[in-house]
Design a protein that fits this description.
The protein is an alpha/beta fold and 307 residues long. The chain has an 8-stranded parallel barrel, surrounded by 9 helices. The protein binds ligand PBG.
């Protein structure tokens, strides 16, 4: 009689791969999550494939960061080599997504290039995203997932992909991405500190605004997004539900690092049943209307669902 079901098919595992390490590095604020080596990433993805998880999304931690984030489009950059490894490992059995942003690659930690006043230059950043999209697609990404919230990013990426022959590369747009405090543990995982204690409120969504999020989603679809996302998930279930009512394309939600870390911390204290609460979180995100969920719980949830 259940109205809503959660299945392994609904899960996308976010994974971190770091250049220049010999052993996986645990992320203290994300218990159970590591920065992978190329080899440990291959092993993890093949385990996820065996559990039936259909997709992963990759984040890279480069050896060197610079002002523009040039490792994001280096053909030998960490995510590009990892994509090639994984294509080799799993063939077409899994969907390979790549987060498309430059914050992991810039020395100032912003999602774009800075102008003379230290603000992100939206339009100059679009050219960098276009290069990163082509590099990711060349390396075998099925899906480019722009997360930087620059205006016009989907159109810029679509035209770069089409212009380089990647007509079938899908765009999953982080369309309604809020300037949330729930990304803290993620920034530990990717070694990002925003310069001068800054924030992303200049380009990410303002938490009080839901109608604006719908406008962002519709604009991304108009520009060519194949799938759209709301992020974070649990504090924004109303936005997921409203988005579901107005869009027909596949709708994703990102159960983000802070949402995961809170449950892990409480469970480690014996304050709640981590598996049960985690599954309730994921089911609630599905009930709100998301078709699929990016979550650090992907592997554990798949193990539970596969019994
Ligand atoms: C930006 C990006 C972020 C996350 C995914 N892509 C961080 C940010 O906007 O600061 C957050 C994911 C999470 O918290 O789990 N590349």
């Amino acid at each position: 009689m259940a109205e809503t079901r959660l299945s392994v098919d609904d899960l996308v595992a976010p994974l971190f791969v770091r250049e220049g390490i010999d052993e996986p590095q645990p992320v203290e604020s994300l218990p159970g999550v590591v920065q992978h080596t190329r080899a440990s990433l291959r092993a993890e993805v093949s385990a996820l494939r065996d559990l039936g998880v259909p997709a992963v999304i990759l984040f890279g931690i480069p050896g060197e960061k610079d002002a523009v984030g040039s490792e994001a489009w280096n053909p030998d950059g960490v995510v590009q080599v990892a994509l090639k490894d994984l294509r080799d490992e799993v063939g077409d059995e899994m969907v390979l997504m790549a987060d498309l942003c430059v914050d992991e690659y810039t020395d100032h930690g912003h999602c774009g290039v800075l102008d003379g006043y230290g603000s992100v230059d939206n339009d100059a950043t679009l050219e960098l995203y276009a290069r990163a999209a082509v590099a990711q697609a060349d390396a075998g990404a099925d899906v480019a997932a722009p997360s930087g919230m620059m205006d016009g990013q989907v159109a810029a990426i679509r035209s770069a992909l089409d212009g380089s022959g990647h007509l079938d590369t899908v765009i999953l747009a982080y369309s309604a991405k809020y300037a949330s405090a729930l990304y803290g543990p993620f920034r530990d995982a990717v070694d990002v500190q925003i310069v001068g204690g800054g924030d992303r409120r200049g380009y990410q969504q303002d938490p009080p605004n839901a109608r604006e999020a719908i406008l962002e989603i519709l604009a991304d679809i108009e520009q060519g997004a194949d799938m759209v996302m709301v992020k974070p998930a649990l504090s924004y279930l109303d936005v997921i539900s409203e988005a579901r009512a107005v869009v027909d394309v596949p709708l994703a939600a990102y159960h983000v690092s802070g949402e995961y870390a809170m449950v892990q911390a409480a469970a480690a204290n014996g304050w709640l049943d981590g598996d049960a609460v985690g599954m309730e979180h994921l089911l609630s995100i599905r009930r709100a209307g998301a078709d699929f969920i990016l979550t650090y719980l992907a592997r554990r949830a798949a193990e539970i669902l596969q019994g």
